[in-house]
Amino acid sequence: MTRPRIAIIGGGFGGLYTAQHLHHAPAQLTLIDRRNFHLFQPLLYQVATGGLSPANIAAPLRAILKHQTNTEVLLAEVSTLDPAARLIHFSDGESLSYDYLVVATGASHNYFGNAHWEQHAPGLKTLEDATEIRRKVLLAFESAERETDPQRRQALLTFVVVGGGPTGVELAGALGEIAHQTLKGNFRRMDPAQAKIYLIEAGERILPPYDPSLSAQAVISLEQLGATVRTRTQVIDIQADHVRLRHQDQEEVLPTHTVLWAAGVQASPLGKILATATGAELDRVGRIKVNPDLTLPNHAEIYVLGDLAHCVGPSGQPLPGVAPVAMQQGTYVAQHLLARLQGQTHPPEPFVYFDKGNMATIGRKLAVVESGKMKVSGFLAWLMWLFIHIVYLIEFGNRVQVVLQWGWNYLTRNRSARLITGANRLPGSTHNQDKIAR
What we know:
Layout: E1 5-9, H1 13-20, E2 28-33, E3 37-39, H2 44-48, E4 58-60, H3 61-64, E5 71-75, E6 78-82, E7 87-90, E8 95-97, E9 100-103, E10 107-109, H4 127-146, H5 150-156, E11 158-162, H6 166-182, E12 196-200, H7 212-224, E13 227-230, E14 233-239, E15 242-247, E16 250-255, E17 258-261, E18 265-267, H8 270-278, E19 288-289, E20 295-296, E21 299-304, E22 309-310, H9 323-341, E23 358-363, E24 366-371, E25 374-377, H10 379-392, H11 396-412
Parallel strand pairs: 1-2, 1-9, 2-5, 9-21, 11-12, 11-17, 12-13, 19-22
Antiparallel strand pairs: 3-4, 6-7, 7-8, 10-18, 14-15, 15-16, 20-21, 23-24, 24-25
Helix pairs in contact: 1-9, 4-5
C-alpha cells in the first residue's frame, strides 16, 4: 500500500519542526528548500558583527534528518503550485505530487515601497546578508584608517541602524561593542571609539512589544555602549554616502556609508503564488490568512505556518514572526497530520500560541527579558538569553562551538570571526581582487 506523501516547503523552524515531529508517521515526507541547511536566524546578528562564524548557526538539513527513514530532502526552488492536481512545480521543470502540503517559507525584508534602498541598506535574513553586513562594517573601519580628511573619516565611522525592534537593538549594541571594546588598540591612525552609532525608530520607543520600563532600560544600556537612540524619527531617503531623516517637521542629512536595515519584513513571494492558486486572502505584508487550525480556506490539505501565516492570536492581532511561534506551529501541524493519518475525522482544536515571553540582548552582560509578570534586565537577563539560544540550536555540535566561541569572546572581548569576504576586499579597490598586489 502506498503511503501518503507530505510535502514540506521550507527548512526553517516551522518546516523542520513539522518534519521532526513526524519521524514515526506512516507517511513519506519530502522536505524542500532552496538551501541545504537550517539557519538559526536569531543569532544572525552575531555573524554580521563577527562574533560567530556562519557554520556555528547553520546545520545541513540532511544531517539533521538523516535518521528519519521516512523523510527525504530535496534541494529545489518552487516556481508554481497546482492545488487542484496537488502538484508542486520546480524551477528546473520537475514536479512533485503530494497528499498534504505544509508551506513555511518565511519572510524577507520590507522597505515599504523603497526597494532601491536595499543596495545601500542591507537587511538581515540570510547568511549572505550577515556576511555582507560584516563586510560593510569592517571595511568602514579599514577605510577610516586610511582616510586623512576628518569629515570623510567621521562619515565612514558613522553607522545607522534603522528599526528599533530586537534585531535593530542587537545590531546597534554589537556595533557599540566593536567600536569601543573589540577594536580597541587594533588601529594606528584612527581611534575606533570615534564611531557614532545611531538607532533610528519611527515609533515612540524602541522594543515596542516590551514593557516600557524595559524599553527605557534598553536605551540606557545602548547609551552605555556608545549608541544614540533616535525615536519618532523617520528615514525618508538612503544614498551611498548619507541618510536623510525627519523628526517632526525637521529634516536632517546624516553623512554615513553604512546603513543597516531592521525596520520591517515582507512575507515570502511564495505566499502570493499560493494565494493566487487557492483564492486565499493576503494581508498587507503578504502573509496568508489561515484558518484556526492553520489550514487554508477550502483547502484542508494545505497548511501555512511561521512568518508566512497570518494567524490571529487571543488579542485579535496576528501572531509575531518569531521563532517560538513557528516552532509551536510546526509541532501542532505534525500532531494534526498524525491524527488525520490515523483516520481521526473530528475537527481539531485550534492552534493556541503559548507565549513564553520576549528577550533581546544588547551587549556583553546586557539584555532584557519579559515573561508574564517577570521583567528582568542586565546580567541575569543576558544569562537567560544565552541559555535559551543555546538550547534551541539544532545540532549538538553547534552548541559546543557556540559555547566555546562565546566563552572566549566573553573573556577576551574579542570577535574572532572578523573576516572581510566578498568582492571588495580592499577599501577603494576597483581592480580584479584575484590579482596579487605587487
